[in-house]
Amino acid sequence: MLDKGLLKRTTIKTLEEYKEKVLLGYINIDYPNVLKKEILNFLKMNKNKNELIFCQYYCAVMDGKVESSENYNHIFNVMHDLALKNNVLAQERLGYMYQFFKDYSDDDYKEALFWYLKAAEQEYDVAEFNVGCFYETGKGIKQNFQKAFYWYLKAAEQDNANAQYNLALLYYNGLGIEKNLEMAKYWCKKALENDNALAKKILSTL
Description:
Elements: H1 4-7, E1 10-11, H2 15-24, E2 29-30, H3 36-45, H4 51-62, H5 72-84, H6 88-100, H7 106-120, H8 125-137, H9 145-156, H10 161-173, H11 181-193, H12 198-203
Helix pairs in contact: 4-5, 5-6, 6-7, 7-8, 8-9, 9-10, 10-11
């Protein structure tokens, strides 16, 4: 399992801080939008330095943040190879590709969940959130609000704003957990503090 310290959400303010963190192996790095162009250029220029930077670069390509002539099949194969090596970021991204870039079939959703779970088992909050979404919606698996709550809580405790918001909704609606408006308010506030704009609307009703 990846060192939990490297999964901790970290905020940086300069390109040098970003370089330092990514070279150390940090996964969750938040940075100001003004650094986006410099960081993407750094990833492009250094993609062969280590597997994490390599994976971060291809994530940027996949999200359309970096112009590239490389096709989908090549990117998929890159992510698949890295995922098999237990690269947590590649596992989460491979799950994403199965979920959104395939045929939207039950088999694709099951494969997406398989890889999300691999990353979630390494306590990667983005993957934990995605697993929660699958259990909440019943994609690729039988709908189970209790398990959705379990995975959202794990991600929320790592300051994942989307998980905090979804957790608040479960408390608000009494799904998978006894209805508790105080807890819904608590997690809405947490989500809002972490820049989830949707939380403001729910919070206004509590």
